[in-house]
Design brief:
The protein is α+β, with helices and mostly antiparallel strands and 147 residues long. The chain is built from three helices and nine strands; from the N terminus they run βαββββαββαββ. Strands 1, 2, 5, 6, 7, 8 and 9 form a seven-stranded mixed beta sheet that branches. A two-stranded antiparallel sheet has the order 3-4. α2 packs antiparallel against α3 (110-127).
Length: 147
């Protein structure tokens, strides 16, 4: 049995609308797809003890995180009838209002794409070693609680 190719997940900085649009456009030639589901995680400008979050700086234990992403990907393909799947997560500083997580699933039928997308997001939040420092303008920060 050969090991499947591991896909690059991390992107430095915010995930841009152009990157997302290009990813979607590349699927127009895959005519066996009947439905896509997309999750976009966006940095909120939460208020913490009267201070407004202006950015989150993401860091990860890269080797372990990439392995966890690979496990999630392989499990999702076994668990759901997917045609295609993409997961991208930011590293580095991402400003409030910018995208930090992009999960894109495709299948012959919408229900599989939607269920898989939701499952993948929950697995990422629960199992991938990614940390965020919430910045409040300037250099003050707190470590983000993963919810």
């Amino acid at each position: 049995m050969t090991e499947k190719k591991k896909h690059k997940v991390f992107i430095e900085g915010a995930i841009t609308p152009i990157f997302i649009c290009d990813s979607i456009a590349k699927h127009s030639t895959k005519t066996s797809i009947g439905g896509h589901s997309i999750f976009l995680g966006q940095v909120r400008n939460d208020i913490i003890e009267t201070k407004e979050v202006t950015a989150i700086e993401y860091s990860a234990y890269d080797v372990m995180a990439e392995e966890k992403f690979h496990e999630i990907r392989e499990t999702a393909f076994k668990k759901f009838d997917l045609t295609c799947m993409h997961i991208y997560h930011s590293l580095g500083k991402v400003k409030s209002g910018e995208i930090c997580l992009f999960v894109f699933t495709s299948s012959a039928h919408r229900k599989d794409a939607i269920k898989a997308c939701n499952w993948i997001v929950e697995e990422i939040k629960a199992n991938v070693p990614i940390w965020g420092k919430e910045f409040f303008g300037g250099e003050s920060f707190v470590w983000k609680e993963n919810k």
